[in-house]
Amino acid sequence: MGNNNLILNLKNIRFGYPTIPKLLDDISFALHQGDRIGIIGPNGSGKTTLLYIIMGLMKPQQGKIEIFNKERSLEKDFIEVREKIGFLFQNSDDQLFCPSVREEVAFGPLNFGKKKHEVEGIVQKALRRVGLIGFEQRTPYNLSGGEKRRLAMATILAMEPRILLLDEPTLGLDEETVERIVDILDSPDLSYIIISQCKDFLKRTTTTQYAIDNGNIVPIKQT
């Protein structure tokens, strides 16, 4: 990892379910500004759970979470975190709920205090980045799977997040949409963690890869 500013630091995180008591077993993990990290691992290994813990959607049974140089443990601690971290859910339908594409992208900036006159420019910029200009009045429900994925990315980018957390961003997508996402991630101002089973995609978009295996996180040697 780079020597840039530390923006995310997990220390000795443990989390489990009754059926899998050591899903995450003493995981320590850091993200610096500018880092582009990929995480792989078998289904059920705890990859998505790790992202939920970072967002405060699940609480670890042990360990410390530091984000933006502040320890986070209570629900109120994660309000700022969710404003500054863009989380792409594995299923885009879990992320989209507004009646139009424009309202979908505008929702986050409006909800976090942007003025109405600022929001239109933000919406257009985000839609341009994902290739959905002209879709403003379309209903998200009627979009294709790839279009929904790109719209979900636009809702995140509109918030100008400091970190992106992407859970299987290429799942079920055609090659053209995958290329569009690769282009989006090529932006020099992004720091992110990507969960993916697609090693080729991670090779193209990340500089450091880890595997979660039997509750532990281990670096993957580059070949």
Short structural summary:
This protein is α/β, with parallel strands linked by helices and 223 residues long. 33% of the residues lie in helices and 25% in strands.
CATH-level-2 architecture: 3-Layer(aba) Sandwich
Strand order of the largest sheet: 6-7-8-3-9-10
Report the order of strands and helices.
EEEHEEHEHHHEHEHEE
Main CATH class: Alpha Beta
Give the domain tally.
1
Cα separation of the termini:
17 Å
In CATH, what is the homologous superfamily?
P-loop containing nucleotide triphosphate hydrolases
Beta strand %: 15-25%
Q: Percentage of helical residues?
A: 25-40%
Biggest sheet details: 6 strands, mixed
Total helical elements: 7
Shape: globular
Per the CATH scheme, the topology name is Rossmann fold
**What ranges have pLDDT less than 50 throughout 5 or more consecutive residues?**
none
Mean pLDDT, all residues: 92
Would you write up a description of this structure?
The model has no long low-confidence stretch (mean pLDDT 92). Helix 4 packs across helix 5 (145-157). The relative contact order is 0.19. This protein has a single domain, classed as P-loop containing nucleotide triphosphate hydrolases (Rossmann fold). Strands 6-7-8-3-9-10 form a 6-stranded mixed beta sheet, sandwiched between helices. Strands 2-1-4-5 form a 4-stranded antiparallel beta sheet, with no helix packed on it. With 223 residues, it is α/β, with parallel strands linked by helices. The protein has helices at 47-55, 77-84, 101-111, 116-130, 145-157, 175-185, 199-205, and strands at 6-15, 24-32, 36-40, 62-67, 70-71, 85-88, 163-167, 192-195, 208-213, 216-219.
